[in-house]
Design goal:
Elements (H helix, E strand, L loop, with lengths): L12 E6 L14 H16 L16 E2 L2 E6 L2 E6 L5 E2 L30 H11 L22 H7 L1 H6 L2 E6 L6 E7 L12 E3 L2 E8 L22 H11 L9 H12 L2 E7 L3 E2 L8 H8 L34 H9 L7 H10 L9
Antiparallel strand pairs: 1-7, 2-5, 3-4, 4-10, 6-9, 8-9, 10-11
Helix pairs in contact: 5-6
The structure holds heme C.
Length: 365
């Protein structure tokens, strides 16, 4: 049966009017004063949202241990997280500790079984298990808008509809100073963007609510930027802002807590380990799965094997470098390959064709 909240989903539509383009200056976020100001204004907005009180309290349910090799069923097989440094005891790690005022921890939105993010299904399960009291359901950014009515269970289903149906968290971002665009049209089904307390003050100032799925806090050694818009200069600063913002803390985590969080995150490697049809993705010569992924980190650099010629060493693309499933030549894989109806072609033929077309297709079928 369709859950009732799915009927209420609607998306805020904003129209941006751009003025003449200005050349983009390459600059590191660390020394970008405009970026720092933008982030600060986003944090000020989050702090202002304390005006909207949560009645719900309650701690984040958390397993005692994240094992060195965690395995969880997903829609197509098994997803796995590998920690080269061994098990993590959650009670003594800041990633899992309640460092704020609303019961949330980093684990509230970054969970093992959903690749260190959340899925819509997992959020719905948590809603049903807790009658909407689980700490992910907090007004500041769990609700479509912090001013939402959450006085009854039915109201909560509406208030958290984007989180429940799509796993989205509200990110309130200020329109940057000296912007090159203005907001000319607003469709505001949640009474958020047009409300001056939570939204816009004018076409060029105030807050725009953007709804984003938590990015996975795993495989971070391969990142080229932190956050969807790259606004965080480092994982350390990200841990501070997440604590002050999502968890509505009164103070930043200590330097030791920040480091512990970042060390933990940097020690996570996550990948699909087993596919229901293809079976083990790290057997018979195939090098899928998180253990193989971790082994690649030491030789990784941004731009490696760039198909568009962006490799800083000027090396040309070398398609044979990308061969996690070269073991598909094994008899075991042949059965699977035939089941995928490739006719006379081999998986390698298709892959070669893909790479020749500059990765416009990237599936193995
Ligand atoms: C209420 C949910 C929520 C909580 C709690 C939360 N996060 Fe996140 N996290 C998000 C969302 C949403 C994003 C993406 C936001 C964006 O890009 O604007 C994100 C992004 C991230 C990223 C960026 C990954 C990338 O690929 O750039 C990291 C790292 C991260 N979070 C770590 C943490 C840590 C550490 C904590 C605890 C201190 C934490 N998060 C708490 C929702 C949450």
């Amino acid at each position: 049966m369709q859950p009732p909240f799915s009927r209420f989903v609607s998306v805020v539509a904003l129209t941006w009017v751009c003025s003449l383009p200005v050349p983009i200056m390459a600059q590191s976020p660390d020394d970008d004063a405009a970026n720092t100001r933008w982030q600060l204004d986003a944090m000020i907005h989050l702090q202002r949202m304390r005006a909207f009180h949560d009645k719900d309290t309650g701690a984040q349910p958390t397993p005692a241990t994240i094992p060195q090799r965690a395995m969880d069923a997903d829609l197509s097989g098994i997803i796995s997280t590998y920690q080269p440094n061994g098990d993590t005891q959650t009670s003594s790690n800041a990633f899992f500790q309640n460092l704020g005022t609303n019961g949330r921890t980093c684990f509230t939105c970054h969970q093992t079984q959903t690749a260190w993010s959340v899925s819509a299904q997992s959020v719905q399960d948590r809603f049903n298990a807790s009658s909407g009291n689980d700490p992910i359901f907090r007004l500041v950014d769990g609700a479509n808008c912090p001013n939402a009515d959450v006085s009854t269970l039915q109201n909560k289903l509406q208030a958290y509809s984007l989180l429940l149906s799509k796993g989205l968290i509200r990110i309130g971002l200020p329109i940057p100073a000296n912007t090159e665009f203005q907001v000319s049209v607003v469709n505001d089904p949640y009474n958020c963007n047009t409300n001056p307390t939570t939204g816009l003050l004018s076409p060029t100032s105030g807050i725009v609510s953007i709804y984003r799925r938590p990015l996975p806090s795993t495989n971070l050694g391969f990142l080229s930027a932190v956050m969807w818009d790259g606004r965080e200069p480092s994982l350390l600063s990200q841990s501070v802002d997440a604590t002050l913002g999502h968890a509505q803390a009164n103070a930043s985590p200590s330097a030791a807590q920040q480091q512990q969080i970042v060390n933990f995150e940097n020690g996570l490697f996550t990948a699909q380990r087993m596919d229901d049809a293809a079976k083990n993705l790290d057997a018979d010569g195939a090098t899928g799965g998180p253990v193989s992924l971790q082994a690649q980190l030491s030789s990784f650099y941004i731009g490696i094997n760039d198909p568009l010629g962006g490799n800083p060493t000027n090396a040309q693309i070398y398609p044979q470098n990308i061969q996690p499933f070269s073991g598909l030549d094994q008899p075991f894989w042949n059965g699977w390959r035939q089941s995928k109806s490739l006719g006379g072609r081999t998986w390698r033929d298709d892959f070669q064709q893909c790479t020749n077309q500059h990765y416009r297709c990237c599936g193995a079928q």
